[in-house]
Specification:
126 residues, alpha+beta, 2 domains, 3-stranded antiparallel beta sheet, two-stranded antiparallel sheet, globular
Length: 126
């Protein structure tokens, strides 16, 4: 699982990235550059092509938006009912779709919203 933490000291912003308990720190611009090159190549979700790499990225991005008490999605590259429910909830809440489709396409409004919000801090783990 990929978790982000935002820390602010004076006017300095840094993002702490913890991947499998290996602590690494990145500046905001470094993180933005890394996320800018990460995109999906095909559709993910209901009726999508569902390439494993694309599904993993969508799972990671959605995990940054899941609110407690909901547990995070398992990042395994497999589309399941929890992924579809999380995607539809995101589309309802953030993209404000009245009829969420449970699918994200490259370059879509849903993917832009997921990627745009990727710098938001996740809940810290202890």
């Amino acid at each position: 699982m990929l978790l982000l933490f935002l820390s602010t000291a004076a006017n300095h912003h840094s993002i702490h990235l913890c991947r499998h308990c290996r602590n690494q720190s990145y500046s905001r611009s470094e993180m933005a550059q890394e996320l800018a090159v990460r995109t999906i190549l095909a559709s993910v979700g209901r009726g999508g092509l569902n390439r494993s790499e694309d599904v993993r990225l969508v799972q990671e991005l959605l995990n940054r938006h899941i609110r407690p008490p909901q547990p995070p999605l398992v990042v395994n590259g497999v589309v399941d009912s929890r992924l579809l429910a999380a995607l539809e909830a995101f589309q309802r809440r953030v993209v404000q779709m009245h009829r969420p489709e449970g699918r994200v396409d490259p370059g879509s409004q849903t993917f832009a919203a997921l990627a745009n919000q990727a710098e938001q801090p996740a809940t810290p783990h202890g």
